[in-house]
Amino acid sequence: METRVIEINPKELKLLELNARYMKHEEYAKLVANIKRDGKLTSAPFAALDGDAYVVLSGNHRVKASVEAGLSVIHCIVTDDKLSEDQRIAIQLSHNAIVGQDDPFILKQLYEKILDIDMKEYSGLDDKTLELLEKFNSLGMSEANLKFQTLTMVFLPDDLKAAKEVISEAMERSKSADEIWLARFAEYDRWLDSQEAASSSHNVKNVATAVEIVLRIFERNMAQLSEAWENCIDDKRWVPVESVIGRAKIPAGSAKIIKKALDSMAGKGDITVKNYWQGLEYLCADYLAGSDA
Known about the structure:
49% of the residues lie in helices and 9% in strands. The protein contains twelve helices and six strands.
């Protein structure tokens, strides 16, 4: 196979549609940063002629990162030889070992495309890897298959504590959900709009402060969540206690009385320690029964 080194705009190179090698977001961000710092690629990708353009067989992430880093010219090792599909895939699998990890589902797909025994051997996959591929039969989802944005928030210590409590509570409640969905990008836009509205209304520039304002507004209106369950047919459905009484603090003296009564009910076996809410239900039921009389 004849090869040569050329200078080319990375935007003119064709990237692989199916690439088993993927990078974690942190690794890719570091690669982009390194290329920006160096002002060039320190290792050349390899590409093969495909029609009137070159398709990258190894170094797809480096080419993509060089575009993101703003490079207009990179060095690339190319071959003008006509390669078979087996040869291209075998070269791809054998060369893509510089950075990153393999998505086993895509790796299995690519390996099974190779028909030539010699090319399968050339790919460099060992018996251990092949054994793992044989066991792998479900669709994987790697970071490379997802389009996402990273949102960074900076909180002051007190603000961070409050935010963590809200986020932890949300995560805890999501565990009992029947299904968990990723938010659509439209919801992300709505969140940014809400954050901007909070910032403008209170004349603040700090993102953490704007988030705190949004959370405070939510807490003040938390009782409105009762609209979602008050007319619900299923009486066995569980609901957040905040949607009943709100997230309000009570005087320590009142808390002691309530706690003492619930502890006494638990001690007598009327309720369990894990279900103190039943004690409140009994007390309220007795009150309603008395008022009806």
